[in-house]
Here is the input.
Amino acid sequence: MTLSVAVSGASGYAGGEILRLLADHPDVEIRTVTAHSSAGQRLLAHQPHLRSLAHLELQPTTPEVLAGHDIVFLALPHGQSAQYTDALADTALVIDAGADHRLTSAEDWAAFYGGAHAEPWAYGVPELPTAGGKQRDNLRGARRIAAPGCNASTVALSLAPGVAAGVIDPGDIVSVLAVGPSGAGKAAKTNLLASEILGTANPYAVGGTHRHIPEIRQALAAAGAPGDGIRISFTPVLVPMARGILATSTAPIVGDATDAEIRAAWVEAYADEPFVELLPEGVFPRVADVLGANVASIGVAVDRAANRVTVVAAVDNLVKGTAGAAVQSMNIALGLAETTALPLNGVAP
Amino acid sequence: MTLSVAVSGASGYAGGEILRLLADHPDVEIRTVTAHSSAGQRLLAHQPHLRSLAHLELQPTTPEVLAGHDIVFLALPHGQSAQYTDALADTALVIDAGADHRLTSAEDWAAFYGGAHAEPWAYGVPELPTAGGKQRDNLRGARRIAAPGCNASTVALSLAPGVAAGVIDPGDIVSVLAVGPSGAGKAAKTNLLASEILGTANPYAVGGTHRHIPEIRQALAAAGAPGDGIRISFTPVLVPMARGILATSTAPIVGDATDAEIRAAWVEAYADEPFVELLPEGVFPRVADVLGANVASIGVAVDRAANRVTVVAAVDNLVKGTAGAAVQSMNIALGLAETTALPLNGVAP
Amino acid sequence: MTLSVAVSGASGYAGGEILRLLADHPDVEIRTVTAHSSAGQRLLAHQPHLRSLAHLELQPTTPEVLAGHDIVFLALPHGQSAQYTDALADTALVIDAGADHRLTSAEDWAAFYGGAHAEPWAYGVPELPTAGGKQRDNLRGARRIAAPGCNASTVALSLAPGVAAGVIDPGDIVSVLAVGPSGAGKAAKTNLLASEILGTANPYAVGGTHRHIPEIRQALAAAGAPGDGIRISFTPVLVPMARGILATSTAPIVGDATDAEIRAAWVEAYADEPFVELLPEGVFPRVADVLGANVASIGVAVDRAANRVTVVAAVDNLVKGTAGAAVQSMNIALGLAETTALPLNGVAP
Amino acid sequence: MTLSVAVSGASGYAGGEILRLLADHPDVEIRTVTAHSSAGQRLLAHQPHLRSLAHLELQPTTPEVLAGHDIVFLALPHGQSAQYTDALADTALVIDAGADHRLTSAEDWAAFYGGAHAEPWAYGVPELPTAGGKQRDNLRGARRIAAPGCNASTVALSLAPGVAAGVIDPGDIVSVLAVGPSGAGKAAKTNLLASEILGTANPYAVGGTHRHIPEIRQALAAAGAPGDGIRISFTPVLVPMARGILATSTAPIVGDATDAEIRAAWVEAYADEPFVELLPEGVFPRVADVLGANVASIGVAVDRAANRVTVVAAVDNLVKGTAGAAVQSMNIALGLAETTALPLNGVAP
Here is the structure.
């Protein structure tokens, strides 16, 4: 059976990537694509690389247009999701690529986003360990899914195995991320101009203000960390690559954990995961290795001199960081093969 | 009086940048430039941007050619400096842009470089606090100077004020650096090809193996940290910008240090420094802000949620990180005005 | 039936891209991958993005290893193909991604390459018009195929329709191409270092020396241009993008050709082509639109003030320019569906 | 005597570069910097690399603020200059970095810009040959100067010597330019976002619509081409470098001009020019060679197979293309040494 799909925000980067993946999905039909100011134009005018969808025209993003599909993807700025909730009450599956339904804590929402706190939905990072299993368990049969923040899921995937196994201390995490500008979306802003980003590296949200911090805390708490004992120093740095995240995360080694015990935590957590790649000892990932692929590639080092475990993770922010996570979660929710339409190979160089 | 200068390694990036700066220096005459395989060719064939030096031809890098100048700059791979020592015994000032004379600890040298440990020279980062003052004191009248490692001096400048003031704990430092490939030199290596670096971020020396780690420890020890109590998790990441370092360094806040006390440490350390720029609270530097300039630009954040101070520093690895540090140290050693021929303004965008 | 495949040069960029495409091809099994200095290592060590081929190990590139497969791809530097000819005599299909078998003229070979001139093979650009039809006709059932030069096929596809229709004059063509460094391969060369390519645009082979010039002439002659009446000013410019070609080609308008007649030449030539995209009037392609896709995207402008037709074409040099052309030609030669395993959609941004 | 200067558009790229150069000019004092929406803020907030001007605050761009200086630079979008004309009637020297005063032909203005055609001013490309000498002659003592369009001056400098000497035919010029996005200014536009420019090459104004075309025609006519016999096919391509133009221009060889005659045209035109660098035969410039420098670097090839001369020129669009041209013209107009405050050396890599 073919399921009908609507994708909002289809003229943007996240929406475009959802479409790129769904275009090859045998079980869905992309029936509707929507946008705001570009409604009425051909999709191809905004996504000229999506030739197989050349027949589609952008509709306005309204509750009426989105209603009536089996699956709806919301790729909208945060805060916009709520206005479509009622109209989509009967929709079998709604996946929000925005932040609205990620946080369980109203307090965190108020502190980092502000405005009304919406209901938390199943968190779309299937591979993350939880107390009783994995986040995948919450996605099976789910009708409402929150795709993750790209930086948050990258850091959470980096550290959760060690936290769950009790070999690293979540109380003093430091994460620094090299990120590409596509994660900031397609809206015209001076600080995202090519002239401002070519040839330079630009930090932002320094000092603990980035909105993905509470999302990381929440994911690590779900993995077994004491909720009030998680501290994260988090600094993202914009670098001149269109896509990608290279996250370097470190946490103190707990007590007398051996190298073997430390490595085993990651090996066991991801042994059967199709889309989390744990690299051999001494090998670390590059963004180039995951571009276009639905893969988080992870290398783990034990640095005894620093008494820290250093985890380097590479993710394509638009695929495993957003659209791939959304489609993977969709597959799980609907009982389809989890890997359907999700590329394992990247495009390099 | 005009001083005669020889620059070895003149066909490379560090050598070229030393020449770019010296070309505008009123007190020196660049008499000799040397190289290995390119000896006999015009300098302009290798440094086409250095038009004011079009008259120069590359000589072979031999003790005989380098001898007989007032000042000699060695911009050579580490381990090559020793063979010129005897021939330069009478040279008034020798500045080594390589690593040979940076480390005081033979043990560190053996562990991170290997081979014979050479005599440590005055360390060319004038602004760094020391027990009794600043590294500048050691440079006045010095006849032998070790220009710093670019990553090392960037991190040392970031953290030394807080260490010296006792407001941050050097026992659990984490530094992650976005660095451009010019720091790795001009030798042809597959991993430095444009195709391997464009569109990606690539970590290297992960897990505590980078050679600049002992240099940072040494600089922080000089600034007052207990020598055996310094621990650094250090991860460099190559990103697609030709030049520049954007270093994010964090360290735990000590005890009950207040925000004002913390900020005061950096304000006082750098108040009178012409080439270290402490940005206003809430402002952080970009690599673009320092390209071409002999400036370390630093922003300091106090992150109470993480209980860490986060320092972001931007440096042009070829200027303040190498050639500018060398020329600034030369100015100090010779009693010239310290700022001579050193650009304060950058070239942006 | 599954056909066995060997790919030589598998550690390089062209070989890697052939593998990326074949990995998704339902009719072939990649049985053997070969390399020179890297033989004995895992493929993944050189192509970490090709996870689905993680089981493969690089064999040495020898006649013995390559023999015994149904299909062999040679992704080797020019001049190396001949040594495998005898061993592959019984191989059903050999596709050379190098230049050895592209040129029909021994004189051109001598002038632009030198060394022994090998037998010309069927030219792997199916869409190019020829006197009686298209190059596709020569590929059907072919046992030996020369994949095209990436720059050559891009320019030939840009201009052949106008030449074949007699609306542009091949006697005064000017082509200038912005090209990414991956076309120059993975061998370590100083001029291909990231530091030499980031932030700059570098011309090469200026003044009519590029080896793809005779290949363009040959393709246009096949499309109907008088062989001795073709003149091409051809200038490639390296720019800081890993992949891609953006070719701007112009030729004089012939006589009183109308705008409609001119446009009709391209419309008719490419109306039924799955992998040549003729953009609407006033729209021109970007490299971003074709990255990862087996598509030549073409925009045509009639510039009456200059009395020239300007054609802008975007091609991913590694896909439609090389590996995609090879696989598309393979599909045709074997009677498979021409579009099998060839992406129509690109990966953007 | 120190001359007082006001720079409008000081928060933008052209204004910033004028300031970078003037900051080192011994004969001027930058008294006033102005902007529109940013008035009231510190200059440093918008130009953090201009540390030596840290004391300046942006004033509003009004006639009153700009009046009363010896020299005024207008770095404003075209069409805005006229409103300041009256207020600046007594200003000794006004230099417009915008397009308003470049074109002598009202017809061209109407066709390519539209709106009221303003009085043409002395054209700020001193090195360009004219019937009786050089454009420099018109700049001596000038009170009103139009700084050139960056693309226009690059192409004009490339071809004017050959046109003036009668060795190339201006009737069939083809120019294709790789250009960096800073030439398009700092206004936030979607097509200038880093995500749209990284990893790609994007053509624009294809087919003869670019506004610099009539400016090139005018400059070549001044160099001696028959005004109605100049035809230019002109295509700019945005590539991922912040600054720079790499222009490839070709024109047919006239009659039986010999290689020596052709080369002599450029040699003679630029023999004594400090800021136009004619490279040796067989050598061609890269953008990297001119970054930060007030230099047009030019290589000339005679392509007999194509019957064309190919000229490759590299220019930093913000320096020799705009701000450097403006300051150089200022120096000439005021009778100062022409090279004052203008860098000959670039910043590379």
